[in-house]
Model the fold of this input.
Amino acid sequence: MPIRIPDSLPATAALEAENIFVMTEHRAMHQDIRPLRVLLLNLMPTKITTETQILRKLSNTPLQVEVELLQTASHEAKNVATEHLESFYTTFQEIRHQHFDGLIITGAPVELLDFESVDYWGELCDIMEWSRTHVHSTLHICWGAQAGIYFHYGIPKHELPQKLFGVFEHRVVKPYSPLMRGFDDGFRAPHSRYTTVKAADIEAHPQLEIVADSPEAGVYIAKSEDSRHFFVFGHPEYDRETLKAEYDRDIAKGLDMALPAHYYPNDNPAATPRNTWRAHAQLLYTNWLNYYVYQTTPYKLEDAGRE
Done:
């Protein structure tokens, strides 16, 4: 079924070229159904790339999904045109009295900063606190997952000896979790981060459980027992070339970067990377939307987030 996004959003053309059913606002206005309302808080500097990647993953859903794009007002984005933000993004003050079926909080390249040193940390805390009463289920990604699990449950992040960078093997820890429905016992997923959370800290918290992990990359997915909060510590939304773009960027800056692990065929950066995580990434987003948003969210949107 379709995702519903603004008619002129740059992602529209890219998704339609991939035969993904995109419903424009004009067509959606003539359908008499309640779409799922999903708010995407995009903290990544490459906003157009990130919004396209995540919209692609939200495309295979049981109902029409209306996506609203949210930016932080307390941070000035430098890698996207002001016109794009003004045309397609809203701010927290504009939506704080609304309710949403789902919220997605992306990663951000600020891992080596203490949470409290991030210039928009106060605003992000306000959004995460608001989500307790105005959002049915929230999906946190990479640094967004570290920030969310710290804010909601006090789980700290720890700096790694070197950047965790590449595509790693994972295992399903909770095979009967609906989130893992359809997953193979083992699957691959990309990571790109300098910090981590410890499995022991999550396991010691009575309201949290680990759903999937990796011998090399550590905890991949954790969730709250009430299914209101999901924490994905990798980047399942990444495209084939995303890690390559990050590697090329850092090499161009003169940084001493290791090759992304398990990514290039024969570790040859001149070779085209193979996307070996696409199917499981799609399944992860689809399962979250289906089992934890669509099938459990209240029909009256104003009740979303309320006990």
About this structure: The first strand starts at residue 3 and ends at 4. The longest helix spans residues 278-294.
